[in-house]
Design a protein that fits this description.
The complex is a heterodimer of chains A (77) and B (207).
Chain A (H helix, E strand, L loop, with lengths): L2 H45 E2 L5 H22 L1
Helix pairs in contact in A: 1-2
Chain B lengths: L28 E3 L5 E2 L8 E5 L7 H12 L15 H28 L1 E5 L2 E9 L2 E8 L3 E7 L3 H6 L1 E8 L5 E8 L1 H24 L1
The chains are: A mainly alpha (77), B alpha+beta (207).
Chain lengths: 77, 207
């Protein structure tokens, strides 16, 4: 492997690592957002007691899916 | 002199409403709904009407959602992310659908929880403007000075929904119920409640 090949290889690793960090950061923001949605639903259902649908359960599942995608991204990217 | 003929009084057919029943998550208009309560409700306060914006007002964002769901198909014809390795492409599409889910959930919650409640004592307007910010406006029925409803346009006429404007003498001078179903009946309910309050006030004075 020549020096140029090595520099190119190292650069390519660094670029995709940086891209991975950006992806993980975006997903982390989404995980935080999905947690806030759980709080939002809690606040809403305390204000109005009417909803039949298990909105809290849906919000929790949404959060767990976001967390799962974050972990998946961490593993496969 | 005995009566020759007495015409039968015409009985107005009252529309079939959710009288006394628990409204579903998709109900936009319910009179005397069962099992509906709100945060600042007093113990003996009865909910007379429970309103939301008409279901049809959700069509624009539902249509957008459909476009968003189909959007990744464009990548077959316009390879916008082909420069990324496959694992990044896959993650990009997953993140796109997560964002679509967030959009749908927020729009749905905004529709479900932005409600207008008419009780036997007051009217309450509950608005959730964004994540964790809510605004609850209320005024007593006896503070209402004027009630007007507006219903115009093809869609609103077909689906029978409109705006109800309420002028009050309280701090909040104007309440507006946007795009509620059966605005004429909402106006009628408010007028009946106002009459009831006036009668109660008179009876109170007499007693």
């Amino acid at each position: 492997m020549t020096t140029f090949d090595l520099i190119g290889f190292l650069s390519s690793i660094q670029i995709w690592s940086v891209v991975k960090i950006f992806f993980l950061f975006a997903l982390l923001l989404y995980v935080v957002f999905s947690f806030v949605v759980i709080k939002q639903v809690q606040l809403m259902t305390e204000t109005i007691n009417q909803a039949e649908l298990p909105l809290r359960a849906i919000a929790t599942v949404h959060f767990l899916v976001a967390l799962f995608v974050f972990i998946l991204a961490f593993l496969i990217l | 002199m005995s009566d020759i003929y007495i015409a039968k009084e015409k009985q107005e057919k009252k529309p079939r409403l959710h009288h006394g029943r628990k409204p579903s998550i998709f109900t936009a208009f319910a009179v005397s709904p069962a099992e509906v309560s709100f945060e600042t409700q007093e113990r003996d306060e009865q909910v007379v009407a429970f309103l939301r914006m008409h279901l049809i007002t959700n069509v624009p964002w539902l249509f957008l959602t459909l476009l968003f769901i189909l959007a990744p198909l464009v990548l077959r014809f316009f390879p916008l992310i082909d420069f990324l390795p496959f694992r990044f492409q896959l993650m990009s599409i997953i993140m796109w659908y997560l964002l679509v889910t967030a959009f749908v959930f927020e729009k749905f919650l905004a529709w479900v929880f932005n409600v207008y409640i008419i009780t036997d004592e007051r009217i309450v307007d509950i608005d959730f403007h964004n994540l964790l910010y809510k605004e609850v406006s209320e005024t007593k029925i006896d503070k209402i000075q004027d009630v007007t409803f507006k219903m115009g346009g093809v869609i609103r006429t077909i689906f029978n929904y409109g705006d109800v404007l309420i002028q009050t003498a309280g701090t909040e001078l104007k309440f507006e119920f946007h795009a509620v179903p059966k605005p004429d009946q909402v106006t009628k309910i408010l007028q009946e409640l106002r009459t009831q309050e006036e009668v109660e006030a008179l009876e109170g004075r007499v007693k």
